Amino acid sequence: xxxxxxxQENKQWLIGCAIGGIVWMIGSxxxxxxxxxTIKSPKSGLTEAYDRNALDTxxxxxxxxxxxxxxxxxxxxxxxxxxxxxWAGPADQHLFxxxxxLKQAIVDAASDRDCLVEDKNLVWEPVTGIDLIKxxxxxxxxxxxxxxxxxxxxxxxxxxxxxAMGLVVVDSIKLESVRMNSRGRGRRxxxxxxxxxxxxxxxxxxxxxxxxxxxxFLESFRLANRTLVVDKWxxxxxxxxxxxxxxxxTLSGISFVSEEE
Length: 261
Known about the structure:
The chain is 51% helix and 16% strand. By secondary structure, the protein is of the alpha+beta class.
């Protein structure tokens, strides 16, 4: 099973494991503060031994969970590049320039490969306020990675077979609204809001390419600390042999709020 399919099929489980590890660590800290010492009394030798063994087991389990949490974060996380996450001067100006440069990079890359794309079909909304600007820049970084890997998939296909069709058309790339909560869910009373732990930026896209390019693009999603997670993936077979497939997809970049803070 390729990494993209694994992440798509198991996304909720992976996020659940990550959240479970965080909850475990919080619970361990609370219990440790309430019961810093094991119970001791002249007649509690068995209980003391049991508590010590239980504590050792809990510590071992906690270490294992921490390691698994780190691994899952590395597998799932999308760490924002300095190009988008750091700047000097006004934040809104940085957002504007970054968006303009990214659109030009996509248009130029498509032109170099005789691929069709229109500037109007590369969409992300302008925002104001530092928090929304940070989210938008995170989203632009996700878009940037998507376009780089898509064109790299085309190059890989053409390198293997120079007569291959490769990428033909980029119909659209759209960064979903950063004004909305990434999960769109409110917090239940006494419950856990996933949006407090994760920041997700989603990109919807449609493109036309041959099957080797589609496969190469999908295989490129897994990259430590720069993973693209598949939310939706639909491939329509060409109506006639020799024509490109049409792919409609929603891809996400996920960052962990605790790491950003």
